[in-house]
Amino acid sequence: MKAPTSHSKLSKKNHRRLLSFLCMSAALACGIASAAMAADAADAAAAAADAAAAANAAAADAADAANAAGLPEILLNSGSVALPAQDCRLIRTAMTPSEVELSMPVAMANTICAESAQVPHTGQNGLQCGYDHLVRRVCRDIPGECHIDARLKRKVCAPTVRDCHNEIIDQARVCTWLETECVRREVVQSSDLRKLKLKFSKMAPLAAGEQEIYELHGVQNHLDGGDAKFAMSPISTKRAVKIKAKDGLFTGFKDIITIKGD
After folding, report:
1. Strands 255-261 and 241-246, how do they pair?
2. Using an 8 Å Cβ cutoff, are 254 and 195 in contact?
3. Whole-angstrom Cα distance, residue 213 to residue 75?
4. Which of 129, 156, 181 delimits the end of a domain?
């Protein structure tokens, strides 16, 4: 016995509807999953951007904290820069040339005589006390001349003659005299303009708005010294650098500091 024809057609129709519904559901699920993945990627990108911004902000905060002393910040945007003080922050930008000549004032301390006085001295001093002119008797023996006697065939000498005469000598007197001497010294401060050359070698290129920060300190080599020495250190750089200084004594009239990128 055969099944009803209308029931067979209805079953096939329902089957096709079921398949269509399943395909639509799968497509919807794929779309939702893709949207979720895109949202996750966007969130990750936003998180990375936030992390980078936070890192930059932290670096800026650290640089600001390190500059608690309020050092003047100078842009190195030309080949010759005048610094206002011996301790400064130097900012390298995209416009900084490979060589920069700096002129900076350096505090110099020198000892001077603040008070002098007449100090007495006692002793034998012809210049201060004068001389006594003394006469003394001076005698010396003058040997007689010698010759070979032909008859005796030997050397014969005349008798020694004693010669005496008076001689005048100057003898320094003993007295007390006064000399001007420094009895109190003090240190005075002055400012001396010094030249310094910076050389940047193999540095990381900087984009517009990017910058590197360095600190430069100058100081007199020693009390009463006429020379100065300089120290430079990186504060915030794009990549690691090495800093090497050469004293002006060996390079001519100016000190040279080379900043080289690793």
Report:
1. antiparallel
2. yes
3. 9
4. 181
Cα–Cα distance measured from residue 196 to residue 229, given in angstroms and rounded to the nearest whole number: 10
Domain of residue 24 covers 1-66
Whether 170 contacts 135, CB under 8 Å: no
Would you say residue 58 lies in a domain?
A: yes
The token duo for 223 is 């009390």
Distance CA 23, CA 29 (A): 10
Residues 83 and 207 in one domain: yes
Q: Report the domain count for the chain.
A: 3
Q: Is 258 exposed, middle or buried (0-12, 13-18, 19+ CB in 10 A)?
A: middle
CA atoms of 57 and 62, how far apart (whole Å): 8
pLDDT band at 4 (very low <50, low <70, confident <90, very high): very low
Same domain, yes or no: 248 and 138:
no
The two structure tokens encoding residue 60: 């800026």
State the pTM of this model.
0.57
Secondary structure (3-state) at 55: helix
What is the chain's mean pLDDT, rounded?
A: 83
Residue 38 exposed, middle or buried by CB count within 10 Å (0-12, 13-18, 19+): exposed
**Contact in structure between 88 and 231 (CB atoms under 8 Å):** no
In a domain, 7, yes or no: yes
Give 85-121 pLDDT, tens digit per residue: 999 999 999 999 999 999 999 999 999 999 999 999 9
Task: Report strand pairing: 154-157 vs 131-142.
Answer: unpaired
Q: Report yes or no: 99 and 80 within 8 Å, Cβ to Cβ.
A: no
Q: Are residues 143 and 163 in the same domain?
A: yes
What is the rounded distance in angstroms from the CA atom of residue 72 to the CA atom of residue 90? 9
Q: Which residue has the higher pLDDT, 209 or 31?
A: 209
